[in-house]
Amino acid sequence: QVQLVESGGGLVQAGGSLRLSCTASGRTFRLYTVGWFRQAPGKERELVGSSFWNSGNTYYLDSVKGRFTIARDNAKNTVYLQMNSLKPEDTAVYYCAARRGVTGSFDNWGLGTQVTVSS
User: Fold this and answer.
1) CB under 8 A, 24+ apart: contacts of 54-63
2) pLDDT digits over 9-45, tens only?
3) I need a surface site. Which of 8, 20, 45, 60 has the fewest CB within 10 A?
4) Which is more confident, 79 or 1?
5) H or E segment at 38?
6) C-alpha–C-alpha distance, residues 33 and 21, integer Å
7) Structural contact between residues 109 and 96, judged by C-beta atoms closer than 8 angstroms
8) How far apart are CA 15 and CA 90, in angstroms?
9) What number of other Cβ atoms are within 10 A of residue 18's Cβ?
10) Which of 118, 62, 70 is nearest to 91 (CA)?
11) Comparing C-alpha atoms, which of 92, 99, 83, 80 is closest to residue 32?
């Protein structure tokens, strides 16, 4: 098990950028897949992107490809979500989650951080 803490959310105008951070406890963090999820009001939670082992093993939701980038620093137990060219539809609570290995459900969750993009 790992404990996750997100930071970096806030209010930004459309076209702007934000970088979210997810810092984890635990000495085996490098063995975990880390995912960034988001949930907008009235909508289901969706997986925005995920990363296993190193930044070369990543997945992105189609709607964020080319705009969002996941970077991982295993030495700091931190995963970043760089969000560029933000759109109002990116407004949501963003959650960091982790699972050990590459398959299975995400069973470690942070409390979330609010991202609001104004038009």
Assistant:
1) 63/89
2) 999 999 999 999 999 987 778 888 999 999 999 999 9
3) 45
4) 79
5) strand 32-39
6) 15
7) yes
8) 11
9) 20
10) 118
11) 99
